[in-house]
Amino acid sequence: YAALAGIALVFALAPSTREVFVKYGRTRDKPETAAKGTQTSGARAGRSTILAAALHLCASWTVPKNLFTQFYCVGAIISGLLTIDTIAWCNSQATPELSGADQRFFGHRYLLFEQWLFGRSSQSRVPIADPSRLAVLSLVLFTIHVLIRLKECVYDQPLTDARMHIGQYAVGIVFYVVTPLAVVADSYYPPGWGLQLSWTVPVGIAIFIYASIHQWRCHQILYGLRRRGLDAKSTGPDSASTSQGSSARLDSYAIPTGDLFKYVSCPHFLCEILIYISIWLASACQATTLLWVIGWTAINLGITARESQQWYRARFGARYPRDRRALVPFVW
Hints:
With 332 residues, the chain is mainly α.
């Protein structure tokens, strides 16, 4: 997670790599335009450089943004199976006839593989603790979040021709493969998870519910605007009775309003960060690996929110609310 966050920051700093690797969806130029811009940047530094040629080639390696659905399919399968596995492991602790059968669980086998991967012999392996109920709770919250996003992508989000770089697609798949393990990894190592900060558990659940509801509302606002924009675009200017109506139909985007859009341009990103914070709180603040997940999510979505804010202001000019921040209300 730290490496991904560092790479994202480096790519966001340089205009050529930002255009190719960071932007996606509405903020990204068409592949040929992005490639052309990258080639021009390379020409200024020297047309024959390997870096310019590589960036020019990479600019065309894009996939449909609609493939976001696959992220949540992968996440739902991995987190769902791991949740079932962890519940079974927890139940085995209270069943005398199953004592000593831990190695039949996937979580246990993964941890043995992890220790082998880092060169620990059977004599130097770190003991493995049984997972706690807090691990199950954290996994259930993550699974609910992924299932909600999967439902939105399949049933609510309109299909568009927006693109993203194939590197962003690969990072998304890896993220949803490993993050379910990150949610519970720390609970497997002694002393395991207790309830040292038990008051954070209900706080985390409350924040999770709040953030999930508002993220759903904000997504529905965006989906509604996009559907209306696509309908107007498909209708075309010929059916407009006035020049003003013609201009409205040609612009398939609109300024989102309502709910948390009153305060920030990307409230759905803010809610995503709050959801991961809430899962960490629900673990009684003991899922320390989740802090790396939160850091990566905040940096990644912060970069994207900044790009979205700039796109909104460039697209709508003076019509865009001046006091609307990018990601954090009243701050940034």
